[in-house]
Amino acid sequence: MTWSEMSPLLWEATGQTAVMVGWSTLFTVLFGLPLGVCLAGTDRGGLFPAPAVRRVLGLIVNVGRSLPFIVLMIAVIPLTRVLTGTTIGTTAAVVPLTIGAVPFFARLVETALREVGRDVVQAAEAMGAGRVRIVTRVLLPEALPGLVAGLTVTVVTLISYSAMAGVIGGGGLGDLAVRYGYQRFETTLMVVTVVVLVVVVQLAQTLGDAVARRLSHR
Amino acid sequence: MITVSGLRKAYGDVVALDGVDLHVGKGEIFGVLGRSGAGKSTLLRCVNLLERPDEGVVTVDGRELTALGPADLRRARRRIGMIHQHFALLSSRTVAGNVAFPLEVMGVGRAARARRVAEMLDLVGLADRAGAYPAQLSGGQKQRVGIARALAAEPSVLLSDEATSALDPATTQSILALLRRLNRELGLTILLITHEMDVIKAVCDSAAIMSAGRITEAGPIPDLLAKPGSRLAAELFPLPPAEPGTVTVTLAADQTLLSRLARAYDVEVALAGGAVEPVAGVPAGRLRLRITGAGTAAALADLRERGLLVEEDA
User: By the 8 A CB rule, do B110 and A159 touch?
Assistant: First the structure.
């Protein structure tokens, strides 16, 4: 395969990966962040302790995390149909990707929030701050470097998950490697795809680390 | 200013507060002394209801906090400043941002907030570090930010939770001097807890000693010193073990004691041990004396008459 033959394939696949990872990252933050706040907050000694709620949330999150992504992707097909009107293609892949990443990210959010000192939260309480303010003005800003680090890990995981999206016709770099590199013995394309994936992951991690470092004033 | 009565708090089987009564007068610096685990931290955190006592009433500045609902309690807390052992500053905010936090909670507008922040940083001597992050400050500077933050909302009361325990001795003294100054200049009432005798000695007008969830002694420091068998006096001014034939004299006021005794009663006064230094603004201390001579009994009676605590050592 020549470069001019590979190039459009690579561009298309990279674009598909970007679309899948981009949208699913957005939705993961949208759902995972509040879920993580709930997980941390409902714990004993948390901001709004509710052991029963926490147990239920914890159970849901653990179920979500224990399913291999490839199984999850098939299992949520009915839901995907309801949400996107289709069960195949790049858009359809965003649904399982989000569902797979939300519990993962929520746990990372929970951990990051736990890192914020209890004394800082109590100081805010002592100043008469309400719970909403404590979450938005104390917990989240204080945990921001940790949240960014967690998001970076999540994005890298999403890139990896998205490689399996070929199964439901989502396309992307992983799918390209499987269809051309493996099934058609296009070793060169396989190597190039791997290189592109490594570079993309490397870029995401470096960018995430830089942002986290920039935000940290510890 | 602060009145606490019948306070009880247990964590499971562990009784942290076992019926505590305390009164802190307006404009007073009141120190609660105790070892770790004595319950003093729980007591302090019950005053602004960070911990809710199982039983008892807490009144601050005329408001019965224990009777307030959540929203009213939050409002009332804004009138109670608090400083912490490990400063509890927001690492994501600058010095100015930290001091502004309580003002944001109160809904103070941006311009007024900036003015007040500048004023507070001036007060604690950190005007030039407004843009620094807490991580860039020394321990003493961090506690100054803590103090500026605690006072930004113009509270009538300041609670100090071991505020100097994480600081070195010189820094401790400068923070205590600052608290003393704020107490005088602003008429601020301060309730502090500490395990360090030196803190009580350096700044407190009144003190209480706490052990096993109870207050064993409380009152103005001169009164405590004048009380027979006072643990405060013993801990403030430790003496070597008593010997037969000596007397222990505790003083808490300016007294020309030794020369007068020798002159008036024709006795020999030998010093066997002692410590005297200013406490709550007056010279105070304990002396162990060996008094000999015909006038000994009369001399001791004279001392007692002048209000000194005289204990004859067995």
Answer: no
